[in-house]
């Protein structure tokens, strides 16, 4: 499982274009020479993801997560945890008691992770529903899209709340569309929401890739809501590399070695339009804080005396998704929730991911993103 640091919680009305939204979400600073020095990476696993031709890091990660045959979310029906019953928070004595309960849940399950909407059900989804009710324009039918709906807990919780608290006409005319790339999770969502019979006619799952513009059809001008919970941290990223503090950035590609069992990184000049666009956006917020000429001279001298490679991870998958959704739904209001902190990340580079696996109730982290075996990463 790959995870990246992303925004904690963001709610935006009339969402701005992706090039303006990305810096807000990822709180960027100028990409600098502060990364840990590392040699080129090699790994003996995951070779079936890479064919005869090299692939960009984002394509490697995308295949590891979403490939229909061996991707994490496609292969595992239990890729997202589902609690049999809600946590009884009124019986917990405080934070320490909650952490113990959480630890117990994870140890008793082979599931790699439980989302906040699952751990805090139904209250988390109810809170989102209340926020929508307070700000939505009910002169038009309520339309909600959820991208990456997991087990359907959020959808059911929101629809439950609307059924009980919204005006009857709002609930009766609402539409809830889940855009889900995983067929196994799409099936679970239908079952979860279908537990309430009246929800079924208002809910549907579109099993497709949300980053594919063609799947959205024509541009929709009516107001709507888009929900992304724990989605941005699971989207593919690209990796760029520089030989030292002042060398130009290069794209990182992955290729098989001659033994066909080992993967290694390949560095090419920046040419990919999505990578170049994302890098420009991530750096644009700090253009006014560009170093002085004296600082540039000092950095140049320092890089010659103590050269050190740089590595930086770019949220190209997030940028692509935001661009596609904004183009398809220009009047959407966006609610996004995700992790703001990842502890003890071992993989080098700015905005590096946490790559882990779980066995016998215990999680273990990898030192390289290439080390993860596809079947359980």
Q: How is this structure best summarized?
A:
The protein is of the alpha/beta class and 377 residues long.
Could you explain the architecture of this structure?
Helices cover 32% and strands 19% of the residues. The protein has 377 residues and is of the alpha/beta class. Strands 2-13-8-5-6-7 form a 6-stranded mixed β-sheet, with helices on one face. Strands 3, 4, 9, 10, 11 and 12 form a 6-stranded antiparallel β-sheet that branches. Helix 1 crosses helix 10, helix 1 crosses helix 12 and helix 6 (123-135) crosses helix 7 (153-165). The longest helix has 13 residues, at 95-107. The termini are close together.
Q: What percentage of residues falls in helices of 4 or more residues? A: 25-40%
- Report the oligomer: single chain
Mean pLDDT: 82
Q: Write down the overall geometry.
A: globular
Topology as a string of helices (H) and strands (E): EEHEEHHHHHEHHEHEEEEEHHEHEEE
Rg (CA only): 22 Å
Strand percentage: 15-25%
Our measurement of the CA-to-CA distance between the termini, rounded to an integer number of angstroms, reads 5 Å
List keywords for this structure.
377 residues; six-stranded mixed beta sheet; 19% strand; 12 helices; 32% helix
Question: Helices and strands in order, then pairings?
Answer:
Layout: E1 2-3, E2 9-12, H1 18-26, E3 42-43, E4 55-56, H2 57-66, H3 72-75, H4 95-107, H5 116-119, H6 123-135, E5 143-147, H7 153-165, H8 168-173, E6 175-180, H9 183-193, E7 203-207, E8 224-229, E9 238-242, E10 250-256, E11 263-269, H10 273-284, H11 293-305, E12 310-314, H12 316-328, E13 332-337, E14 354-359, E15 362-365
Parallel strand pairs: 5-6, 5-8, 6-7, 8-13
Antiparallel strand pairs: 1-14, 2-13, 3-11, 4-10, 9-10, 9-12, 10-11, 14-15
């Amino acid at each position: 499982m790959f995870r990246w640091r992303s925004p904690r919680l963001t709610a935006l009305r009339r969402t701005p274009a992706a090039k303006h939204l990305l810096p807000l979400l990822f709180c960027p600073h100028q990409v600098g020479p502060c990364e840990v020095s590392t040699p080129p990476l090699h790994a003996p696993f995951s070779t079936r993801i890479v064919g005869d031709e090299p692939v960009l890091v984002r394509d490697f990660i995308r295949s590891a997560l979403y490939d229909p045959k061996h991707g994490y979310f496609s292969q595992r029906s239990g890729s997202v945890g589902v609690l049999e019953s809600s946590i009884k928070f009124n019986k917990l004595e405080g934070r320490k008691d909650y952490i113990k309960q959480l630890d117990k849940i994870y140890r008793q399950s082979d599931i790699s992770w439980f989302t906040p909407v699952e751990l805090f059900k139904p209250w988390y989804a109810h809170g989102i529903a209340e926020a929508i009710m307070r700000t939505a324009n009910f002169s038009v039918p309520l339309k909600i899209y959820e991208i990456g709906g997991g087990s359907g807990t959020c959808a059911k919780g929101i629809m439950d709340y609307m059924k009980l608290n919204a005006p009857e006409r709002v609930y009766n005319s609402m539409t809830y569309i889940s855009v889900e790339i995983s067929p196994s999770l799409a099936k679970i969502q239908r079952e979860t929401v279908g537990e309430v019979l009246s929800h079924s006619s208002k809910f549907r799952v579109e099993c497709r890739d949300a980053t594919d513009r063609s799947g959205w059809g024509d541009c929709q001008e009516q107001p709507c809501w888009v929900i992304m919970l724990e989605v941005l941290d699971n989207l593919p990223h690209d990796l760029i590399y520089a030989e030292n503090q002042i060398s130009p950035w290069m794209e990182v590609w992955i290729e098989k070695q001659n033994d066909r069992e080992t993967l290694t990184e390949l560095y090419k000049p920046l040419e990919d339009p999505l990578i170049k666009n994302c890098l420009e956006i991530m750096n644009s917020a700090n253009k006014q804080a560009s170093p002085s000429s004296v600082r540039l001279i000092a950095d140049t001298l320092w890089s010659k005396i103590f050269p050190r490679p740089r590595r930086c991870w770019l949220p190209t998958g997030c940028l692509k998704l935001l661009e596609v959704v904004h183009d398809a739904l220009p009047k959407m209001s966006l609610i996004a929730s995700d992790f703001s902190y990842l502890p003890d990340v071992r993989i080098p580079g700015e905005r590096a991911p946490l790559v882990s696996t779980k066995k016998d109730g215990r999680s273990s982290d990898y030192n390289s993103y290439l080390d993860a075996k596809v079947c359980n990463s």
